[in-house]
Amino acid sequence: MGESDAGAEDSQARPLVGSAGAAPASAEAAPSIEAAFREERGRLLAALVHRFGDLDLAEEVASEAVEAALTHWPVDGVPRSPGAWLLTTARRKAVDRLRRDTAYAARLAILQVEADRADPSPPADADGDLPDERLQLFFTCAHPALPAEDRGALTLRCLAGLTTAEVARAFLIPTATMAQRIVRVKRKIRQARIPFRVPGPDELSERLPGVLQVLYSLFTEGYAASSGQTLQRLDIAEEALRLTRILHRLLPGEREVAGLLALLLSTHARRDARTGGDGEIRLLDEQDRSRWDRAMIEEGRALVVTALTGGPPGPYGVQAAIAALHAEAEDVISTDWPQIVALYDVLLRLTPSPVVALNRAVAVAMRDGPEAGLTLLATLADDPRLRDYSPYPTARGDLLCRLDRFAEAATAYRDALALAHTEPERAHLRRRLTSAEHRCRGSHRIEP
Amino acid sequence: MKYMLLIYAGSADAEGCEPQDWMDYEKAMRDAGVLVGGHSLADLTTATTVRVDQAGERNVTDGPFAETREVLGGYDVIDVPNLDVALDWAARCPGARGGGSVVVRPIADFGDFAG
């Protein structure tokens, strides 16, 4: 699972076969080795990149170190400090390589001098603990000079420790295509010399939103398709959550990081209730709230306080506050809709977008009734950015249903069906359409 | 690491595009010791394009075709440690303002392979 490239993939099996004498130990050790590596991989890679300034070299020697671990640990036992063992081994292998490859050595010698000049204090890895250089890797993977569509893939590859094949599966594209994209993006990092560094305090406000955007996109990538059949993608949501936790540990003072983490927690807390037994979508008002993850909701709520305290709020903090209000309500009716509308007002000022306006209109409908919501939706009808956005006609259909205007609602659902992308969403809309059509006929029958 | 900043002209009357701004910018680059070289290009109407076809026939035409609004107005070559620093200098260039843009391209370094 955690290997960095195809070459390392078969290394899982090899030592188990090779060291027949230690077979019971290896069978027992394998999962913990796996877990240790998965946990340490991003950190190991970041430490190696910091030291050698070369992502490819870092990945290669990290893989070799893991291969060595898979050979030695089942026999000798897992070392007390697995991360430091891996780093020492990987560094030794890197030095071997450099001795063999003089051109490489010349290049890295220059990089090393620069790295030492920039950061005179050596990484504190001598006492056994692996230094945490992952923050600079977050900023490198989300660098604005890289193609936006590749930043998430690179983050999953370098920080989450997914193989290229796993990353390809996450984005539903062929492995070969993903491999090409990763090669291309790594080449740009090397050739344009995109630095491995944490932006200074004056740059942070400009660069941090890019990092958060990558994590949020990864999360929604996994979350939007939680149809039950594609469990794989729920893994991606969890990976995004795990990485956001790491980022929050590394930047505890950044309120928007706390806000994003709170938002992901509050949203992910509902994962089990979002689909029914057949994988069908269950909306907020249909969800069994006893299946919400209370621990996650509590954790998210505490973070919302951090995100909203001590200065003007950022967009993730506000969205997290909205999610937290949903999470703490007993049901849809008793949800604090006035407060949610007020938060959407703030969000609309921070990030003016028709999607936020749409969500606000739905919240207003909950506060003031469906007519008020429809009036607001009408003001968005001509926005070209909503033209192909199925939630817009869906929201109209739902509000029209609440006003018993079933014929119009059916039309809106048909519009939405034509725009829906995923099968679970289409199934959900077909269900609503059928119900609206049924009640439409029903109401006609009553009329003379 | 050397980077070329390709400066594409925006509207000439944009703020921050006074001759003094350009002189200040160049001075800043010289003072910082990053400027390797650079030139402004003469007006686009003075440009001439040469192509040689497969038969070796020379074909000379007037101008590059400037159908786009992106017109290369000049370049600077700077020597800085990495892309972030290059981007900082590009952002300070008066040509990046007023609808103009600066494209930053690393200059290929074949020294790595020469040893």
Automatic annotation (TrEMBL), chain A:
Residues 207-307 form the DUF6596 domain. It comes from the Bacteria. Residues 18-29 have a biased composition (Low complexity). Residues 37-101 form the RNA polymerase sigma-70 region domain. Pfam families: DUF6596 (PF20239), Sigma70_r2 (PF04542), Sigma70_r4_2 (PF08281). InterPro entries: DUF6596 (IPR046531), RNA_pol_sigma70_r2 (IPR007627), RNA_pol_sigma70_r4_t2 (IPR013249), RNA_pol_sigma_r2 (IPR013325), RNA_pol_sigma_r3/r4-like (IPR013324), WH-like_DNA-bd_sf (IPR036388). Residues 141-189 form the RNA polymerase sigma factor 70 region 4 type domain. GO terms for molecular function: DNA binding; sigma factor activity. Residues 1-29 are annotated as: Disordered. One of its GO terms (biological process) is DNA-templated transcription initiation. Gene3D superfamilies: 1.10.1740.10, Winged helix-like DNA-binding domain superfamily/Winged helix DNA-binding domain. The keyword Transcription regulation applies. The keyword Transcription applies. Keywords: Sigma factor, Transcription, Transcription regulation. Belongs to the sigma-70 factor family. ECF subfamily. This is RNA polymerase sigma factor containing a TPR repeat domain.
UniProtKB/TrEMBL annotation, chain B:
InterPro entries: Dimeric_a/b-barrel, YCII. Residues 1-110 form the YCII-related domain. It comes from the Bacteria. Gene3D superfamilies: Dimeric alpha+beta barrel. Coiled coil: none annotated. PANTHER family: BLL7171 PROTEIN, BLL7171 PROTEIN-RELATED. Belongs to the YciI family. This is YCII-related domain-containing protein.
